[in-house]
């Protein structure tokens, strides 16, 4: 065998080996950063429409269908049974299940209620950790309940957007399930999402298992459709006692009521028991005292009817004229995150031209713009990915360390991109050498 023959046989072998190494490195890099074109394409196909309940349920290991509209969620399901086990029932006081005249109404108040029950509905009792106002003078925790409602919520978002204020929307699971796109709409306008139960039942009228089901189905619905795990809960009608509190706390919730006297009474408009001028008059009366208040307020308004939005605009302008500063609940209580879990940073996509070294790294567009549920000067939280890329939630409530979380996320993101660029470059270089 001549020298030239040796070269001619050894060169293809070396080339083959280098090609193999290059391809392997490139494949490894692409797998590590999730850039496999086939995977990317198929996952996009699966998760494009988050309103398709059955697909989302399947992806999240859910067995049962979502609870129905206007129905109390079933408790005899595998999901609820598992959630019930999260609660240490020895810490839940054994209080009576309150009576109600009609399903869906607030409970009836008996003649005698124990002070130790701290039942707000019938005695006005607040627990020390109930959020009923904002600590800062003239801070105004702006909240709207009972949505989202097609067209009405959109009008409300538009009105608030014109004035550049953010609010907390206490949504019900059943309404969300009718218009899940509105959850993303609320977030994309910078507002804050919180829970108002699934079926809007008086919480004290429910069994322990029913309370768990109301909270967790709503939480899961919002999480599956947005990637945000809600942290704040306002009981419908403000109906809460120490039994409901003990369950909600253990499931990771902070209870929000409202400041005494700052219920706008707009809900009475639907029942025709109040007029707009009467609401404005009442509001004027409350605003008269606002300069004397050391602490701010949390108000109660609704977004279930067109009239509510008109009233909301008037009340907002009146409050601002008095020097009040409207804001969502996390800002009101100085909570920089406002959720127990937020979406992970958006996936990164490496663009690798054929037979060339990788040139650029393109960040995928977020499905939902980041919420403004953080303090003003904080960097915005990570944009929301499609729900399917969010890991199966941990079952225990976690209080995130805001700054730490964001730092970790940011660092994680840089690390991933840097490593992959290096790996991809090595792979491509090996291919280049081999070619
Ligand atoms: Zn309500």
UniProtKB/TrEMBL annotation:
Signal peptide residue numbers: 1-37
Designated name of the protein: Chitin deacetylase
One GO process term, biological-process aspect: carbohydrate metabolic process
Matching Gene3D superfamilies: Glycoside hydrolase/deacetylase
UniProt keyword Hydrolase, yes or no: yes
Region (Disordered): 36-75, 374-401
Residue ranges occupied by any NodB homology domain in the UniProt entry: 138-327
Positions in coiled-coil regions: none
Gene Ontology MF term list: chitin deacetylase activity; metal ion binding
GO cellular component labels: membrane
Species of the source: Actinomortierella ambigua
SUPFAM superfamilies: Glycoside hydrolase/deacetylase
């Amino acid at each position: 065998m001549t020298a030239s023959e040796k070269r001619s046989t050894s060169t293809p072998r070396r080339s083959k080996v280098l090609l193999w190494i290059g391809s392997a490195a490139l494949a490894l890099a692409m797998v590590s950063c999730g850039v496999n074109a086939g995977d990317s394409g198929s996952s996009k196909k699966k998760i494009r429409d988050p309103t398709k309940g059955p697909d989302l349920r399947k992806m999240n290991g859910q067995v049962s269908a979502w609870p129905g509209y206007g129905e109390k969620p079933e408790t005899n399901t595998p999901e609820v049974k598992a959630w019930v086990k999260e609660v240490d029932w020895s810490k839940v006081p054994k209080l009576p299940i309150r009576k109600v005249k009609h399903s869906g109404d607030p409970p009836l108040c008996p003649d005698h209620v124990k002070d130790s029950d701290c039942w707000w509905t019938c005695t006005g009792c607040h627990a020390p950790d109930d959020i009923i106002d904002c600590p800062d003078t003239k801070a105004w925790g702006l909240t709207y309940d009972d949505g989202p409602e097609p067209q009405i919520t959109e009008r409300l978002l538009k009105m608030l957007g014109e004035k550049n204020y953010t609010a907390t929307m206490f949504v019900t699971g059943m309404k969300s399930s009718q218009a899940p796109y509105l959850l993303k709409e609320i977030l994309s306008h910078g507002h804050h999402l919180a829970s108002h139960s699934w079926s809007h039942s008086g919480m004290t009228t429910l069994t322990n298992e029913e309370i768990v089901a109301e909270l967790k189905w709503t939480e899961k619905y919002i999480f599956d459709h947005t990637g945000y795990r809600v942290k704040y809960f306002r009981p419908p009608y403000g109906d809460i006692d120490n039994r409901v509190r003990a369950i909600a706390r253990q499931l990771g919730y902070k209870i929000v009521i409202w400041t005494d006297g700052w219920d706008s009474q707009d809900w009475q408009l639907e029942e025709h028991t109040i007029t707009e001028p009467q609401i404005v008059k009442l509001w004027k009366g409350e605003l008269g005292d606002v300069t004397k208040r050391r602490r701010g307020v949390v108000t109660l308004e609704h977004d279930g009817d067109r009239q509510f939005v008109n009233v909301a605009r008037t009340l907002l302008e009146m409050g601002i004229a008095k020097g009040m500063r409207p804001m969502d609940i996390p800002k009101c209580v100085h909570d920089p995150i406002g959720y127990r879990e937020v979406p992970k940073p958006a996936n990164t996509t490496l663009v690798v031209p054929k037979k060339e070294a990788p040139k650029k790294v393109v960040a995928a567009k977020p499905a939902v713009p980041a919420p403004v549920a953080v303090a003003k000067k904080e960097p915005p939280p990570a944009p929301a990915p499609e729900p399917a890329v969010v890991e199966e939630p941990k079952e225990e409530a976690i209080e995130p360390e805001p700054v730490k979380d964001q730092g970790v996320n940011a660092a994680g993101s840089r690390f991933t991109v840097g490593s992959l660029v290096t790996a991809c470059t090595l792979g491509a270089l090996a291919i280049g050498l081999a070619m």
